[in-house]
Amino acid sequence: MRRGLYPGRFQPFHLGHLQVVKWTLQRVDELIIVIGSAQESHTLSNPFTAGERMEMIRRALEGSNIDLSLIYFVPIPDILMNSVWVYHVKSFSPKFDVIISRNPLVMRLFKEAGYEVIEPPAYDRKIYNSTFIRRLIIENNNEWEKLVPAEVSAYIHEIRGDERLRSIAGFS
Amino acid sequence: MRRGLYPGRFQPFHLGHLQVVKWTLQRVDELIIVIGSAQESHTLSNPFTAGERMEMIRRALEGSNIDLSLIYFVPIPDILMNSVWVYHVKSFSPKFDVIISRNPLVMRLFKEAGYEVIEPPAYDRKIYNSTFIRRLIIENNNEWEKLVPAEVSAYIHEIRGDERLRSIAGFS
Amino acid sequence: MRRGLYPGRFQPFHLGHLQVVKWTLQRVDELIIVIGSAQESHTLSNPFTAGERMEMIRRALEGSNIDLSLIYFVPIPDILMNSVWVYHVKSFSPKFDVIISRNPLVMRLFKEAGYEVIEPPAYDRKIYNSTFIRRLIIENNNEWEKLVPAEVSAYIHEIRGDERLRSIAGFS
Amino acid sequence: MRRGLYPGRFQPFHLGHLQVVKWTLQRVDELIIVIGSAQESHTLSNPFTAGERMEMIRRALEGSNIDLSLIYFVPIPDILMNSVWVYHVKSFSPKFDVIISRNPLVMRLFKEAGYEVIEPPAYDRKIYNSTFIRRLIIENNNEWEKLVPAEVSAYIHEIRGDERLRSIAGFS
Amino acid sequence: MRRGLYPGRFQPFHLGHLQVVKWTLQRVDELIIVIGSAQESHTLSNPFTAGERMEMIRRALEGSNIDLSLIYFVPIPDILMNSVWVYHVKSFSPKFDVIISRNPLVMRLFKEAGYEVIEPPAYDRKIYNSTFIRRLIIENNNEWEKLVPAEVSAYIHEIRGDERLRSIAGFS
Amino acid sequence: MRRGLYPGRFQPFHLGHLQVVKWTLQRVDELIIVIGSAQESHTLSNPFTAGERMEMIRRALEGSNIDLSLIYFVPIPDILMNSVWVYHVKSFSPKFDVIISRNPLVMRLFKEAGYEVIEPPAYDRKIYNSTFIRRLIIENNNEWEKLVPAEVSAYIHEIRGDERLRSIAGFS
User: Fold this and answer.
1) Of A146, A166, C127, E70, which is least packed with CB atoms within 10 Å of its CB?
2) Chain C residues within 8 A of A39 when measuring between CB atoms
3) Where is the Cytidyltransferase-like domain (chains A, B, C, D, E, F) (predicted)?
4) D44, D51, D31, D64: which is closest to D149 by C-alpha?
5) What is the pLDDT along chain C (172 residues), one digit of tens a residue?
């Protein structure tokens, strides 16, 4: 059995992320989704709590008929020491065999620790981009809803996450 | 839908814990298992990492034919401030409706925050007791294997967790 | 009896802040002044220690004939988790009924926690603005003294706070 | 003007503490009461939040007709480094001239930093002792009410602090 | 070239420690002395600062004609996560090849990380024992001076460390 | 005997730093080199671990025939409270008499604590500048090797530090 580990902040989880999950599940038996910066929430860069992100991802995966019993979620708070970060992840997470990432720092740290790292194919980062999506939400531009799985936009509305982001930004 | 939250340290997960999980799943639709003191490992009181605990619990639940898609795992590091602990849990965890606990401090903190707390029936704490089980492991007394689900004892052997505990204790 | 809570960093306390305090004291019986980022000092953004800020505010209030026995000061270090910040404040502070703030994040966090938040009337933020005042101090432009209560400018001179700010900025 | 600094945990504030405050106010012009271990609450050793302790002390001083405008409260979280603790206190507190303490570590640390330390006369520590008082509360022995100022016992009842302590201890 | 790493708290550095250093220097080319719990000082268990410990060890090694250019000192604060501690040490320290320790936890953690660990011969832990030495100092029993290198007892007297320990203990 | 303390981040140690060390050793008997932000590594601003920095500096000093037995290295993690930073350094470091620095904040903090601070002569900060050197490394411009001691460039190549910096930057 082979397990992949996919780290991200997922603020929010968008269609590019979903594509990576699907691509990875064709290559591994089980997938650990690491929700990074888990202590963060209610900021312009990190509006959603770790729990909210876990919930929106689960719903999106369910909506794509992905078997949830193959998925692990591991929220991980920042540790502020890159030299030990890999081992921090290792201690909070079930065992894993391979890292899925295109992030240069993440790739470097896991490679220095001797892990196999695979790069998923690039998605279009001009639009499938959490920063861009948050900006659209703040500007009250509904186009953001097309960039995330339907379950994610429904969930964000349900918890009034769009309103939260706008009020933190000083609008409304 | 009603979600329960069951916090513990699970060092290790034993048959008493399993009984609580089963009892709870008859009363809620989904269950969040909070793995507390997630930053701890390799000590006499907390020998296993959060990831190892997550893995041993999953295997035990699978072995009991519990549907894993109804279960959430949330490892939570200590925050050392009881007054904000409930809100820390809340932010790391998907939404929950009711707390399952017999721990006086946990019960008190969630009640002060306005949550419903239900006490599962007591199991025999003289033997289904993680401290007692760890002591048996240190003393190399195989009786501990009868106090945990078969998958847990298999897993602990697989990761040589019994050996780890004995070597930390200064034996072997 | 009704208590208000007014959070700020007060680097330094200026006439706009004083106006808010006076306005609030006509609406509440007692006022808690929360000195945020209490661990910070000796930086361009946060030149004064929490203790110095407490002292300059007290003197300013005394100079305005405000009854000090109605005022509480609560220095609060940053906790870096917005999701628990309100509860952190709650635990360091005497009980309070209403929040006085125009800061979008502060307003949002207290509202999500179920608190009443009132917005004091806006003062002229172009000049009653701590960032602007610190810049004037660094540039050795005496105009800053007109933007703070007389007791505050006297206190800053007394502790040579203006000189400190200039030397941290690399001048003098 | 001469300011004293009196550090303690005040879990709870008792008649011995009150006696020290009164004795000190005959020797200094203003008094800073440092509420230590401010981050702690809801434990057997530290049942009350910093805010609750601030409130119970204020009421006790008011009840003794002490002028509150001469008193400063400074809640200070633990910093876990004795070598910098004095400077931590110094930065959170208005300026002070003399320390009031009989605690050997506190006395030593302030003396090493060059401060004057004065020892107030000993009170009867067999009964005016916070540990003893907490034990009486847990045992539901009303005698504890005679060991604290009347305002403190009233306040503890008002916030159901006695009930909290008993439930944390596993009683009730 | 082969480098050893010798971790300890050295509160204080005694003749048993010195014997380990000498034994090790016959087996490695260079030696890194890790001063653990570096943030601690002024307590009964950890009376000396990391800097004081570095200084007392250097003087003792000089007094034994050990070439200081072969020795590295690395003060390391506690990180409270055993699972990452080895990597924390690795990041604060020059590269090392072998661990010198008889401490079960230290041995276990470095072995799990794939390091070679060698156990130096046991010294008489009944008397060459920092806890015992601190107790003698507190009891004002001069016998402690025979258990540490002459330079260490001279240094402790020079900084009045014996007096500090007694005053923290509540004597003197 | 007179000891100097020279704090820096040394990311990496360059010829300007070496010049300061030489200049200082003509004025003091021993020199403590404080390696600041010791917890940082693997970022664009702080690519090297504290241990790597200690090792590159030692080799550079050896290469300049500086007597290593006169040099102390003290890695110090950030403490995020300027008001106690000097005392943090003091507790991690052997005793020192004078600070060598041209950094405005460092100079200010040590002066406020009553220390003598001396400014070494300025070197040409346009080229002897760690930020500039890191940029050259990222751009794969070999000119950086002329700006650091030969031992430092050899060491950085040995640990593939140039490659690390480029991969963190997203190149290669």
Assistant:
1) A146
2) 80-81
3) 5-135
4) D64
5) 899 999 999 999 999 999 999 999 999 999 999 999 999 999 999 999 999 999 999 999 999 999 999 999 999 999 889 999 999 999 999 999 999 999 999 999 999 999 999 999 999 999 999 999 999 999 999 999 999 999 999 999 999 999 999 999 987 6
E25-74, pLDDT tens digit by residue?
Answer: 999 999 999 999 999 999 999 999 999 999 999 999 999 999 999 999 99
pLDDT at E13: 98
Residue E12 is given by DSSP the state: T
Backbone angles phi, psi at E70, to 5 degrees: -95, -5
Distance CA B168, CA D9 (A): 36
Q: Which structure tokens are listed for C70?
A: 């109605």
pLDDT for the residue numbered F172 = 60
**Tokens encoding B23:** 């009892």
Q: Is the pLDDT of residue A172 over 90?
A: no
Environment class of residue D130 by beta-carbon count within 10 Å: exposed (0-12), middle (13-18) or buried (19+)? buried
Q: Does E112 touch chain B (CB under 8 A)?
A: yes
Q: Which two tokens stand for residue F88?
A: 């943090």
Q: Which neighbouring-strand residues pair with C100?
A: C118
Residue among E80, E83, E105 whose CB faces B168 most closely: E105
pLDDT in tens, E80-119: 899 999 999 999 999 999 999 999 999 999 999 999 999 9
Q: Which of chain A's residues have a Cβ under 8 Å away from the Cβ of E84?
A: 79, 84, 87-88, 91
Any chain C CB within 8 A of the CB of A40? yes
- The percent of residues above 70 in pLDDT, for chain C, comes to 99
The verdict on a CB contact (< 8 Å) between F40 and A109 is no
> What is the rounded CA–CA span in Å between residue F30 and residue F95?
11
The distance of Cα D119 from the centroid of its chain, to the nearest Å, equals 15
Q: Does residue E79 surpass a pLDDT of 90? A: no
Q: Architecture of E3-168 per CATH?
A: 3-Layer(aba) Sandwich (3.40)
Q: Is some CB atom of chain A closer than 8 A to the CB atom of B24?
A: no
Report how many Cβ contacts below 8 Å link chain B to chain E: 25
Assigned token pair, B125: 């704490």
Cβ distance F81 to C39 less than 8 Å, yes or no, reads: yes
Q: Locate the chain C residue with the closest alpha carbon to D159.
A: C95
Residue with tokens 């037995």: F69
What pLDDT does D79 receive? 86
Give chain E positions within 8 Å (CB) of F51.
Answer: 74, 90-95
Instruction: Return the biggest CA–CA distance within chain D.
Output: 50
Q: Residue F93 in contact with residue F50, Cβ under 8 Å?
A: no
Side chain identity at residue F27, one-letter code = R
* Residue carrying structure tokens 């940082």: F40
CB pairs B-D closer than 8 Å: 25
Sheet holding D116-118, edge to edge: D71-75, D30-35, D3-8, D98-100, D116-118
Closest Cβ–Cβ partner in F39, F75, F95 for E55? F95
Element (H, E) at E8: strand E3-8
For the record, the structure tokens of B88 come out as: 């820390």
Asked if F81 and C169 come within 8 Å (Cβ–Cβ), the reply is: no
Question: For position B134, what pLDDT does the model report?
Answer: 98
Alpha-carbon span F51 to A157, nearest angstrom: 49
Q: To the nearest whole percent, how much of chain B has pLDDT over 70?
A: 99
Contact B91, A41 (CB under 8 A): yes
Question: Within an 8 Å CB–CB cutoff, is residue A88 touching chain E?
Answer: yes
> What is the C-alpha radius of gyration for chain E, rounded to an integer number of angstroms?
16
Structural contact between residues C167 and F108, judged by C-beta atoms closer than 8 angstroms: yes
> What is the rounded CA–CA span in Å between residue A88 and residue E80?
12
In order of A130, C57, C116, D69, the CA distances from C29 in angstroms are 46, 18, 16, 16
Q: Chains near A, with 3+ CB pairs < 8 A?
A: B, C, E, F
